[in-house]
Design a protein that fits this description.
Order of helices and strands: HHH
Number of helices: 3
Distance between the termini: 160 Å
Helix content: over 70%
Shape: rod-shaped
InterPro entries: PP1_Regulatory_Subunit, PRKG1_interact
Organism: Cyprinus carpio
Largest sheet: none
Strand content: under 5%
GO molecular function: enzyme inhibitor activity; phosphatase regulator activity; protein kinase binding
Radius of gyration: 61 Å
Domain cGMP-dependent protein kinase interacting: 82-182
Protein name: cGMP-dependent protein kinase interacting domain-containing protein
Length: 182
């Protein structure tokens, strides 16, 4: 109610025109209806009837309602301005959120590409390590084969030396037998 009172103070003051203020040659529509209402309310004796009083109250009430409606329309205008401001605020907030979402999407794309690069790098490293592992296994196998061959070579040289010794002994025995048989 206080907002109605404060708004009514802001409105320009209205002064009531008397009938003599309006020019007689061209009365306005509202002046004509005002005069007709006054003339119809009073009868020839100057005494108002209860129905006239009721219609006067009704028209006063109607005018008051119209006045209050116009005041509430100004409130509605200000309320709609508030809604408009709220709507604009919501739009700006939505735009900010959209830009943040777009930034987040770009950052996500960057991070995914970095993750892909790191994954590919790790794959290459794991491939290298698997190649390295296979090379390492091959090297170990070759080293084992070399050590086995070295062992065989040692055995072979021992066998050769044994074979040579046996040949020498055989030759000596043949000489001894040939001397004994002569």
């Amino acid at each position: 109610m206080s907002s109605l009172y404060s708004r009514s103070k802001d409105l320009p003051s209205r002064s009531r025109k008397s009938l003599s203020d309006s020019p007689p040659s061209s009365p306005s529509y509202s002046t004509k209806t005002f005069r007709q209402d006054r003339a119809s309310r009073s009868d020839s004796s100057g005494v108002e009837s209860p129905s006239d009083r009721l219609s006067a109250r009704t028209s006063t009430y109607t005018r008051r309602e119209n006045r209050l409606a116009s005041l509430s329309k100004t409130e509605d205008d200000s309320a709609s301005k508030d809604y408009k401001k709220l709507y604009e605020d919501a739009l700006t907030e939505n735009e900010k959120l959209k830009s943040r979402l777009q930034d987040s999407k770009q950052e996500l794309t960057k991070i995914r590409s970095q993750l892909d690069r790191v994954t590919q790098k790790q794959d290459r490293i794991s491939e290298r390590s698997s190649v390295f592992e296979s090379e390492k296994r091959e090297k170990e196998a070759l080293e084992k084969r070399v050590s086995d061959m070295e062992e065989e070579l040692k055995v072979l040289t021992e066998l050769k030396s044994d074979n040579q010794r046996l040949k020498d002994e055989n030759g000596a025995l043949i000489r001894v037998i040939s001397k004994l048989s002569k």
